[in-house]
Amino acid sequence: MNGDGTSDAAMEQIRVLDCAYFASSPLPVEDSAGANAPDTRSEEDLARYERIIGIVEF
Amino acid sequence: MSLLLHAAFVDSHGWMAIVNRRDQCHEAASEAYRELAKRSWKFYTSSWTMYDALSHLKERAKSGGYEAARALDELARPPAVIVMPVTKEIERRAVARFWRMPDKAWSITSCANMEIMQDASLQYVLSASASYREAGYVSLIRLVGAACEAAVP
To answer: Do B68 and A55 count as a contact with CB atoms less than 8 A apart?
Structure first.
């Protein structure tokens, strides 16, 4: 058992994903430095977001 | 640390509702997502959630899911979307939360997302899953009977 009461078996069961692919994602270190002030998005930026809307149907 | 007011966490249900035209919450999720993008809100998600969404899409390769997964993967990079890695510490806390709440049908992934939202001071979530509301977060889309509605502040 782990310190929080979780069994080793349970811990092992969820260790199936390797997050290395996303490891370069930045931490939100800007949170205390004005993250609540939105920056401005260009039409190109908005088009990127728009691209995935309704892209598939099943 | 103060709560982030212009940021939302998108869970796998949220991503699927945005991309899939036949999803019950597609209209509501798209409306919320589009509005938040226009308002320059920051979008957060977790690595586990993104893997989940990509996997669901790829399973539907014959229906265009592979291309959809590629498109979502391309979007899921800073600054468009901040993908938070599920660290060993987050994983440990998520599993602890999972077992600590025997009366809640929260998945371990949802628990990990809650831990990340807590650490990042996020209060809004783009998902119709009841789990987040039960945990005190604010859902930007809500199931009302058979209908799904956007609830953007």
So the answer is: yes
- Chain A hits for B33, CB-CB cut-off 8 Å, are 49, 53
Of A27, A36, A49, the CB nearest to B5: A36
Does the CB of A4 have a partner CB in chain B at under 8 Å?
A: yes
Distance from CA of B104 to the nearest CA of A (A): 17
Q: What is the pLDDT of residue A38?
A: 60
Residue A54 gets the label, from left (phi > 0), alpha (psi -120 to 50) or beta, of left
Is the peptide bond prior to B102 cis by the omega test (within 30 degrees of 0)? no
Give the closest of A15, A17, A40 to B40, CB-based: A40
The structure's pTM equals: 0.81
Query: What does pLDDT average to in each consecutive run of 10 residues of chain A (58 residues)?
Result: 51 41 42 54 93 96
Q: Classify domain B4-150 by CATH number.
A: 3.40.50.1010
Burial of residue B134 (CB within 10 Å: 0-12, 13-18, 19+) is middle
Across the A/B interface, how many CB contacts are shorter than 8 Å?
133
Contact B40 A41 (CB under 8 A): yes
pLDDT-derived band at B29 (thresholds 50, 70, 90) equals: very high
Q: What string of DSSP letters covers B72-133?
A: HHHHSSTTTEEEE---HHHHHHHHHHHHH-TTS---HHHHHHHHHHHHTTEEEEE---HHHH
